[in-house]
Design a protein that fits this description.
globular, alpha+beta, three-stranded antiparallel β-sheet, four-stranded antiparallel β-sheet, 385 residues, 44% helix, 18 helices
Length: 385
């Protein structure tokens, strides 16, 4: 059984139902902390769906230098507000960065190769890294420059070098160009004074508290273990940080039957007593807008409604989870959601000039329901034909 009331509250918190919560893509990016972004067209759509549905506004925010992509945590690429990337990477990326450095020998890379790769990147990207003006350097252009400098990029070496340099704070993925986010220098593209020292005086607990506030107000109801899984920060740090932001949050528990929120663990049927946090007023707003959160919805792959929590079974059962993530290989299909649960997966079919919805039902759907999904498909914010 899915927890549709928990799902509905999270749908509302994430800005996927109800009145538009976020005035601009950069506000959505900032308040979420980070959106998983390895599926580039998917993360553009995720941001657009939360800000009025205009993917052009999302691309423009990347071009202006307001949103970037980087590797702030888990060794995975995320879309992040430009004023967040530096401090978030310093806070959360140390573990994945150490793991990446340890893999250098497997790729026959040494410190000198990474140092030379940085020099070449700075040479070719410097004049293209002014926000709002520069257009960045395409990855193929950067790889060509590295090869010309005698740096091998085959067998994953180029990807490894670039991801390391981004994790070190040397570079970022910036403006939209030729179907990708081009590479820019972080020191000129990111706002000054937004590293951990500049933003929080080097205080990691204060930075964690801000990350916790953002996480719980956009993804809550959620618990400290959800945040620990998502950020990979130690629970001890998270537990030290949460008291600093409780004035900005409300808390309670969800029952295990349908996810309905309660003020105390004793009131939650079958609950484990875990304390959950969410933005003030969410429970009351959900009570008033429950019907809106239960409407049909099409999501891109890798959306934060699915990937923002360690346990996705509040949205679907194990059988449907296998269909959403075949082979549990980390590649997510696009989800069709109704009444707070995944009822199908979807893709596009047909030539570029005449795309149509290809919906695989995981739960029986009526003709009117399929029609509503088809209407959502026609309005879906794509970045390409």
């Amino acid at each position: 059984m899915t927890q549709r009331h928990l799902a509905g509250a999270r749908i509302l918190a994430q800005g996927l139902a109800g009145p538009q919560r976020f005035t601009s893509p950069v506000q959505a990016a900032r308040e979420f902390g980070a959106h998983q972004g390895q599926d580039l067209s998917g993360v553009m759509a995720s941001l657009a769906l939360r800000t009025g549905g205009d993917v052009g506004a999302v691309l423009a925010a990347f071009d202006r230098g307001e949103i970037v992509r980087g590797y702030p945590m888990r060794g995975t690429v995320f879309a992040v507000a430009a004023d967040t990337l530096a401090w978030l990477t310093e806070l959360c990326a140390s573990g994945p960065l150490r793991a990446a450095i340890s893999r250098r020998s497997q790729l026959e890379l040494e410190d000198r190769h990474v140092g030379r790769a940085q020099e070449v990147l700075e040479e070719v990207a410097a004049e293209h890294s002014t926000p709002g003006v520069g257009r960045g350097v395409l990855r193929k252009e950067l790889v060509a420059a590295w090869e010309a400098a005698g740096i091998r990029t085959d067998q994953g070496r180029g990807y490894h070098l670039l991801s390391e340099l981004i994790s070190f704070g040397v570079a970022a993925y910036g403006p939209w160009r030729d179907g990708e986010t081009a590479v820019v220098l972080a020191r000129t593209w990111l706002p000054a004074g937004t590293d951990l020292d500049g933003a929080f005086g080097g205080d990691e607990v204060a930075a964690t508290a801000e990350l916790a506030r953002r996480y719980f107000t956009t993804r809550g109801p959620a618990g400290e273990r959800d945040l620990a899984w998502w950020s990979k920060l130690p629970l001890r740090t998270i537990r030290a940080a949460i008291p600093l932001v409780t004035e900005h949050l409300e808390s309670g528990c969800a029952d295990n039957k349908d996810g309905r929120l309660h003020a105390t663990a004793a009131e939650a049927r079958g609950g484990d007593g875990e304390q959950l946090w969410w933005r003030p007023g969410l429970a009351e707003e959900y009570a008033a807008r429950e019907k809106e959160t239960m409407a049909e919805m099409l999501l891109p792959g890798f959306d934060e409604l699915e990937l923002g929590y360690p346990d996705r079974l509040y949205l679907l059962d194990q059988e449907r989870h296998h269909a959403l993530v075949p082979g549990n290989n980390g590649v997510f299909k696009r989800a069709a959601i109704r009444r707070g649960e995944v009822v199908g997966t979807w893709t596009r079919k047909g030539p570029a000039w005449k795309r149509s919805l290809d919906l695989t039902e995981l739960r029986p759907l009526s003709a009117p329901q399929r029609k509503r999904f088809a209407t959502l498909f026609t309005a879906f914010p794509y970045t390409a034909p």
